[in-house]
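lol forgot to send this yesterday, sorry. struct tokens for the thing we talked abt
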């Protein structure tokens, strides 16, 4: 019995020494881990957070041939932005198929693509330089007064868009907001 115990102890110590000195190194595993990490980082410049009336979703920004930016995701949320104004909204739990916004300074019309829904009056944009950004603000009046905002960082990149999309439930503290992630 004592011989079995000694052999077992020696065997256990030998295996333990082998296991502690043995490491697994795989260049394929390292490459795969780096690729997965790089894939996440590759999409980072395009990730935005969309919110409206308690609805929150991740969207990706894509520039179209006509210079607009479209923010979209796999659940059919879709927002078009022309650099100053949100021009089309789809998804987001809206009951209309799409919301179309036309105009910029002066009159702004909101429709469901076929029928007019609202008309607002908007002042010219004004810039307010801050320490780390510039905030562009546009005062508008519909059924109530509200302010559209665009925040631009020090590098000149838009990092936040906050605009009323002409629906009554968005007055005045419930705008559509797109924020860079």
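and heres what i got for the seq, position by position
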């Amino acid at each position: 019995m004592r011989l079995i115990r000694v052999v077992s102890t020696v065997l256990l110590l030998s295996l333990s020494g082998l296991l502690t000195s043995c490491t697994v190194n795989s260049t394929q595993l390292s490459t795969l881990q780096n690729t997965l990490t790089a894939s996440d980082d590759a999409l980072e410049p395009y990730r935005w957070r969309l919110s409206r009336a308690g609805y929150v979703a991740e969207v990706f920004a894509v520039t179209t041939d006509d210079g607009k930016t479209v923010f979209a995701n796999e659940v059919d949320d879709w927002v078009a932005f022309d650099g100053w104004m949100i021009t089309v909204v789809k998804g987001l739990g809206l009951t209309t198929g799409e919301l179309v916004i036309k105009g910029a300074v002066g009159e702004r019309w909101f429709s469901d693509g076929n029928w007019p829904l609202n008309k607002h009056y908007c002042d010219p944009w004004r810039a307010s330089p801050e320490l780390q950004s510039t905030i562009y603000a546009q005062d508008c009046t519909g059924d109530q007064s509200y302010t559209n905002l665009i925040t631009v960082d020090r590098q000149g990149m838009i990092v936040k868009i906050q605009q009323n999309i002409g629906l009554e439930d968005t007055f005045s503290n419930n705008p559509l907001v797109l924020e860079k992630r």
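The CA atoms of residues 75 and 91 lie 8 Å apart. anyway ping me if u want another try
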